[in-house]
TrEMBL record:
Binds 1 Mg(2+) ion per subunit. Belongs to the HAM1 NTPase family. Homodimer. NCBIfam families: PRK14822.1 (NF011397), RdgB/HAM1 family non-canonical purine NTP pyrophosphatase (TIGR00042). It catalyses: dITP + H2O = dIMP + diphosphate + H(+); ITP + H2O = IMP + diphosphate + H(+); XTP + H2O = XMP + diphosphate + H(+). This is dITP/XTP pyrophosphatase. The keyword Metal-binding applies. Its cofactor is Mg(2+).
Length: 215
């Protein structure tokens, strides 16, 4: 399993995710690179039915090709009013190629289609309302092909879906995800604030604790 001074490949081309991982692993002396820095690697088909299954599939498939430790995550948005959708299909909810704006637009269309009741948010002002309870969920899987070791960690954060985007930070569904306890959307948080409470931040802290225990 990885130690200080090692190099780790993150199985993502998402620059937002990559930035979060780089910040976290820098603190334990591990150098991170992502799929944008490795030529010739194919996209891995995500055939799992859970976030952890998909993360495991990606980590093992990429590790087999590059012969080094790989960290993969599968994460997504689970909306109560949509029976947990988009779930494992979050990244490609509006189809391929993945597009954040299109995914957000489809989510709002689906909530409108089912007649989700809007609850006005006086503290947000300017006519903002929430349409459903929801949660972000993340599964991280670290796989080291040298000894076939595997570590897995999960995290989630509860919130509500806004009736329109708010904030310019983050990525994915962040502009539509309202955090009642903070009175802001995920896209209004600084990176440090987001990492402190996010599903991915929680899973990362659990994983780093596991690694420290194996050091």
């Amino acid at each position: 399993m990885i130690r200080r001074g090692d190099e780790l490949l993150i199985a993502t081309r998402n620059k937002g995710k990559s930035k979060e991982f780089r910040e976290a692993f820098r603190e334990i002396g591990v150098t991170v690179k992502d799929l944008n820095e490795v030529a010739g690697l194919p996209d891995v088909e995500e055939t799992g039915t859970t976030f952890e299954e998909n993360a495991t599939i990606k980590a093992k498939a990429i590790a087999a090709l590059v012969g080094m430790p790989v960290l993969a995550d599968d994460s997504g948005l689970c909306v109560d009013a949509l029976s947990g959708a988009p779930g494992v299909y979050s990244a490609r909810y509006a189809g391929e190629p993945s597009n954040d704006a299109a995914n957000n637009e489809k989510l709002l269309r689906e909530l409108d289609r089912i007649g989700a009741a809007a609850v006005i948010l006086p503290e947000a002002g300017d006519g903002f309302a929430t349409l459903s309870a929801a949660r972000f969920a993340c599964s991280l899987v670290l796989y080291d092909p040298s000894d076939e070791s595997r570590l897995a960690a999960e995290g989630d954060v509860e919130g509500r879906i806004l009736n329109r985007p708010r904030g310019s930070g983050g990525f994915g569904y962040d502009p539509l995800f309202w955090i009642p306890s903070l009175g802001r959307s995920m896209a209004e948080l600084a990176l440090e604030e987001k990492n402190a409470i996010s599903h991915r931040g929680q899973a990362l802290r659990k994983l780093l604790t596991m690694l420290e225990g194996k050091a």
